[in-house]
Batch of 2 targets.
Target 1
Amino acid sequence: MVVLKKEEMLSSAEDAVSFALKKGADEAEAFAYQGLTANVTIERGQIARSSRIIDRGLGVRVIIDKAVGFSYTNMMESKAAIEETVIKALSSARASKPDEGWRGLPFKKPFASVENTYDSNIVDLRSEDLVKIASVMLDAAEKKDKRVFPIEGGAGASYLSQAIANSNGIVSFDHGTIIECSLATIAREGSEVTPVCFEFSAERSYNIDPEWVGEEAARLAVSALKAKKIETKSTSVIFTQFTLQQLLYYTLINAVKADYVQRNQSAFKGKIGETVASKIVTIYDDGLFNSGLRTWKFDGEGVPQQKTLIIENGVLRNFIYDNYTAKKEGKESTGNAIRAGYLSTPNVDATNFHLMAGSKSPEELIGEVDEGLLVYYLQGAHSSNPASGEFSVVVTPAWRIRNGEIAYATKGVMLAGNVFHVLKSISALANNERKIGQLVAPWVLVENVKVVGK
Amino acid sequence: MKDILIKVVDVAVQKFGAKYAEVRAQRLFKTMLTLKEGRVEAAKRGIENGAALRVLVNGAWGFASVGALDVKTLTDAVSDACKMAKAASSRLKTPIRLIETKTVEDKVEVKPRKDPSKIPIEDKIKTTLSMSDTILGYDNRVKSCTIDYLDLTGTNYFINNEGTFVEQDKLYVWSRITATATEASIFTFSREEIGSTSGYEIFDVETPEIVGERVAKRAVEQLKAKPPKGGTFPAVLGPNVVGVFVHEAFGHLAEADLTLSGSVLLGKLGKKIASDVVTFYDDGTIEGAFGSFKYDDEGVPAQKTLLVKDGVVAGLMHSRETAQKFNAKPTGNARAEDFRVEPIIRMRNTFMEPKDYSFQELVEDIKFGYYFKSFRGGQANLDGTFQVGIQEAYEIVNGEVGEPVRNASISGNTLETLHKVVAVGKDFELWPGRCGKGQTAFTCDGGPHIRVKEVLVGGSA
């Protein structure tokens, strides 16, 4: 399959919009998406497969008498298929019910500049290059310790492009790259098997560090050996980015979405201006974050992405909006309409959710803890109560901290609490900021977390 | 279609020397709805055409996926897959081989009583709206209700160079219904899923009124629930929780790829890992169940696979690759979400076999413990650490089910916990769900009520 160029992406979106208007749509929007991904996969200690996926398509949203219809196709080269898609979107809208809250599609606004989101070196990578990256990582892990078994992982490179057109004059194109490598390991000694330990590196430019990923994944697995049970009590806990991302994804991030607030599903409803977190906590949703994994010029509705202050020194300042939820409150979209490629209509979601770092090194943070846990990974965050923020998860593994030093790995330990209390109990932030999914954050130290042990 | 696919497979074998080559071509049609508080957010329909090409060259896998079905695109893609396999093979220690299977030529047609592709979208909107009305009208403390609806129909063509050709219809009807309720500063959340491979007639059984009330009632009753105590307690698990426990805590470890990766079941075939009353199956042949199909995505017939018999590990779930490694029979567990991804080992309908206890007998001699009735998610680790979040639970006090409990979750080590299953009920329920393992698979899981001597309960702060 040939890669579609900017002009082809744009014209298929524009053609779909004008065809929809001709066929009776009040408003129309078309979103074209193209993703080219190459992967090399590690399975059980060896590189065993390589794949290439070309996925592209066009999603069309039309509005007739305030009723919304949507249809998509993955046959972008066929004019007939696109026209049929438009017809389907129109008939869906006609079959649907009017949405009295509908206030129109957005208008064009100038984009801010984004940096380090595209690297031609990534586009030019071949399978052989990815094999090399995966090999470096694998070798680094195996060299570290004989007890380590790399169970899965790999290296991948993607080129993504998107074009949008709507009946209010928006016509825009953006493209970008992502490269990543990851390794999951376990360590075995005698009859003991550790939980899965995981490291990764993901960037928009070609500057990942596979050797570090391999070494670190191996180091974590080995240090998870000889795990012990601990007593039930309330204690200090250091959350790494892996665990923060899990806990916040299902709770805090939902609570700041205007959709959740307007629909009475957010514990933050009516709390703008109130203190919701410890005063050292400042969070932005930053759609323009330099080399951010979710940095783009525009969102899924063609609205410029932006930097929005969410929590300032512990005080709740703003929610995040798409066009629909913003218009409902007479506001402007914050550029947070996110799409799953061409397959869906946009939903309100975070871009790069940036919890600002502090000044302490991770070692200093550990040094401040007399008695506590360093929680690297956890299981079960998706079973949190998304409305109340209550969670009850198992940590796999965590390390006990005693007198400012890591003492040993723990097993069979659960953490229970409420994310919104956790936010208020953050007592220190490290300086080791990193990107993971939609989160950009450092390690955080939280006081008084309930640890359920034996 | 068959002629094109034969040509493509031939290119892989003859031009690139592939030992094995397969093509999976699909035409899929989807209808989707999202309703929020009875507002239809958008009525959505889509078409996907595409092919997955998988080859074994020099003992390594090459894979390509494209969103087209013409001979030129597929030939280019299969050539790509072969070249990639060659690149990957440069670092291979153990070449990949596949267990031999009988070749099959078959055409599988679904015959739903109510074909979702023939039901007007207006009717689907009406059904989901009436569910939404039931929920929002149940109690004024119900504040929100989100309903997602999906139906997927289409045809899957599978061919490989060994002579297997299967043309198989696909049909899924699914819905997820969630509601929240609020009173004072308490937020509760309740969810249900509906899923079937038989047809739209699922809504004649799981009617909007029945499902709506189930979701709304739970959200409201949880408002007066109290947090659980943290610690170790005896527990009775309902079929819905037993299902997710069998699936998450045991099932994933018995997926042969994860077993080989070092799950605690490695080396346990034929060994006792659970109490005598424990028997597990993974069954792809239950008619209409959400995890059922006739052939998997390697052209292997689905079957009823015994995993644990009276506490002893009897089998694992296999792809052709892992079956070869274990020298076992393939079980038909290789599934791919769609043409964008490779088949991997997935569960189908996974359950515990019922025995002879009544519910009363299970709870009657528990002084203090918990009855975990319905789950909100679960997850397991290769070392056997599992966690299951609970959306509906009750205290058991002096042998009676007592007050409701909110936001509990249970955890433990799978093998330790399986030895603590002391009694198994005579009832049985199977619940539809979706399982994530990089890709999404439609599954069911279930079983009877059971009693566990003790389990770790995560309390609240």
Note: Residues 368 and 397 of chain B are 5 Å apart (CA to CA).
Target 2
Amino acid sequence: MKRYLALWFPNLLTDWLATKKPELKDQVYVFTLPEGGRIKITAVSRAAEKQGIYADSILADAKAIVPNILCFDDEANLSKKLLIRLAKWAIRYSPIVGIDLPDGILLDSSGCSHLWGGEEKYLQTILSKLNESGYHCRGALSDTVGTSWAIARFGKKMSIVPFNEQYTALLSLSPAAIRLEEQTIQRLHKLGLDKIGKFIQMPRSVLRRRFGEAMLLKLAQAIGTEEELITPIVIVPPFTERLYCLEPIRTKSAIEIAIHKLLEALCKRLASEGMGIRLAEIKGYRLDGRLTEIKIGTNQSTHKVPHLAKLFELKIDQIEPALGIELFILTATKTEPVLVHQEKLWNGKPGLADQNLVQLLDRLAGKIGQQAIRRYIPQAHYWPERALRKAISLEEKTDIIWQKANPRPMEMLNRPEPVQVTAPIPDYPPMNFRYKDELHIVSKADGPERIAREWWMEPGEHRDYYILEDDKGHRYWIFRSGHYNEGKSNWYLHGFFA
Amino acid sequence: MKAEKHEVVAQLRKQMLDLQGFKPTATDDVLKFELGAIEACFPNSIFPIGTIHEFLSEKSEDTAASEGFIAGLLAKMMQNGSSCLWISRNRKLFPPSMQAFGVDPQQVIFIDLHYEKEILWTMEEALKCEGLACVIAELPDIDFAQSRRLQLATEKSRVTGILLRKDPKRSLSATACTVRWQVKPLPTALNEGLPGVGNPRWGVNLLKVKNGHTGNFLIEWAEDHFESFEQQEEYSVPLTKQLG
């Protein structure tokens, strides 16, 4: 059984302005837009309505009624923006919320209202919340979108249409209530069919011939013989969990409990489908209408509650509860099938696949960021700076093996530092070198090892590397850039050997 | 008679350690580091794993030597296929060089951070993770309370922690580490008349050993294992710098 709630904001724009400028409350003011040389009224305040000023009339006419009327410029799409904002706010009452231009929003309330203690209280809560925030609003609940829409705007007293009674509810309403085109409505009135009840039982073929297929569709949608769906503003992802709080939540421990509860429910579902979380977020809907959220990511898909809870707990500090959070929504934004690991009877071989390590890295990534965690794998380059690259994942392997023939220094400088060198004969190791104002007398040396620059990647000279040991036993990696050029060669220190 | 005397001495030593509150590790999974004379300095002559080791180094040359020595130790600790974490700020360690000491650089996870606070947090968190062989952190200074936290974390998980203190500024006396090392490079030696640079040689100085004793040692990394060597020529390098 589906239930839909339609909300109607008869003074959407003007109410919104009044919330921003409280002095406008109970004032006569309108929104206007120039149209074809005249200024047209697009929205009117409640007080203006009482004076007999309506939307779609001309500003000059309105000025005849109220000479000192206040005018504000309307903006294209302003009401759409407002509706989207309201619809996002209303997600706390139902996961599927759509906007209904120009002045309403629609909620799929199926299975939601009992959480507020019945439909009556559900509707009352929403309407009073909206009234409190300054919006005049009417709402109706029924089995179809069409009927809810009609009752919200044209209904006399009944705002909740009981199950399967939309037919009787519609009978006494004007044809405009079923969202017909202006032309059709006028023709119906001309024919004396000023109530839906007067034509609802007419044969379909007769109605189709006179008023077209569109009218029949709208009628069928209102009665419920034809299905109508809401286009949600936020598409509900398959793995989400919602937690309504009886009292707004503010404390850290309460948020932790909420996270645990949500994770337990979601992970149970994930586990039954063999899926695991890679990315997840928790959104907190605050009492003041704002949203606060935290996101986590994992290296391997998982549905282990303690681990995920730990990841979220590291980020609880980022949640700002302000006056309190009344609804939590946990969404698994990215899921992947879980690799099932065999439970070990005894401690097996640890390594990079070790679950403890994977979980540790998730926690670290949550706190310090994924970019700080690096693993290196070899690349097929002799050029020292390019001999290795960052691995994309923990599992990534490559067939390339580390170049092993020539020793590499334990510590390598990011940028080679120039040194002054005395080298007696071309291609002979230096006799001594001066680094940071200290003279090192070379006692042993190995080399040269020529490493050519990869000319297809960057221009420049080759390098001739020497391993030098000074008289104190310190070992260095020094290179000459380019060929030997008496007294003019550039020498650099590039690293320290163990 | 003599053998009996040795046994009695060994027995008494064990009793002393018990009285000092030292809890020996289970003897069946003792890792052999083949450090020769150095191991005799440790309680029960077993290289202590599952504790905090400190390495002091002043200059880049010393740091490179310490890193080489650490890599040699890592090779033993990681021989069961486990991995280790290397946490640092301004890291200069060149991963490919580790394989000369028997460590597969692909098995090492490097974490490069900016703040000491982050390094400490990461190290403590990592030390609690039982799947790791070792956690190395480059951190110049640490106070007693922080080192105590790290020590407590390692005692629970039995993961070895190594603090590589480059150019430490603060007083060195007050940390809760079990062993404090200082490794300095020494001139290499090749067979008479051969040119070139030989295997790395270090002067290893044990500055502090909890429940053990200190000492100076000469050690060489001979392709795939540690080897003690005797200083041949008259050569003296000031191994100890009085710190703290």
Note: Chain B has one domain: 33-228.
